[in-house]
Amino acid sequence: MSARSLSGQELAAGIRAATAARAAELTAAGRPPRLAVVTATADEASAWYVRLLARTAARAGIGCDVTDLVPSADRPESQDAIRAALIALSGDPDVHGILLQTPLPGGARLADLAGSIDPAKDVDGANPVSLGRLLTGLPAFGPATAEAVLALLDHHRVALSGRRAVVVGRSAVVGKPVAQLLLARDATVTVCHSRTVDLAAVTSLAEVLVVAAGRAGLIGPSHVASGATVVDVGTNATADGGLAGDVDPAVAEVAGALSPVPGGVGPVTTALLLRHVVEAAGSGG
Length: 285
Fold this sequence. Notes:
- By secondary structure, the protein is of the alpha/beta class.
- It has nine helices and eleven strands.
- The strands form three sheets. Strands 1-11-8-7-5-6 form a six-stranded parallel β-sheet. Strands 3-2-4 form a three-stranded parallel β-sheet, sandwiched between helices. The protein has a two-stranded antiparallel sheet with strand order 9-10.
């Protein structure tokens, strides 16, 4: 068996085209969409994503400003400095979307800082208010990566209702919101994490397996049921400057479908995030 590829390129291209068209309309009306990214990490995979996001935003006609708060020997940025930047951007009428890039420096917690993002500008669904609305099924911007997983599955016509789904990872950025979105689609969901005993025994029961653990090659063929659909959310920097997923490529010989890294969830995530910015600009956020 060789798994079919759950590529996100075609889906992302369609979202980007529609977003660019809407951005052009808003710009012509005197409201050019603008995204502000606050980054406080030297993580290379994160830096790669921010660079990609800025380039993609520019091509879509969306402004993208990066506030660099990466700590250094002569500038030990604090949690207070990050919070102050988020508050200032939330009050800036020319900024429509705000993204706090993770991971954060030691001592800083996303849960403590994301509440400083105006929910109307919280285009990556990090504010606890946004997450609470997602949990209860109310309108809100969901975390773009979590939404991208569902969008990718829908694009490739993967059925979810009644199916056994396993999520590996419990972060508020991906794991927990993905689990909630899968539940909302009537999947039966199990969430695994670092304390899960015999991970393979749980993941091998999944018909749909979503891996968002942040550990390169964590999931191998023995973790996957024959014919399962596997979505790899991992983006781990490699020594040669590339990216590796959380799923060993050898899983393709067991799974029925597998998303590539790069080229799977990633481009859809970026496209959805920028669509959120345009939606916020259009609604007055």
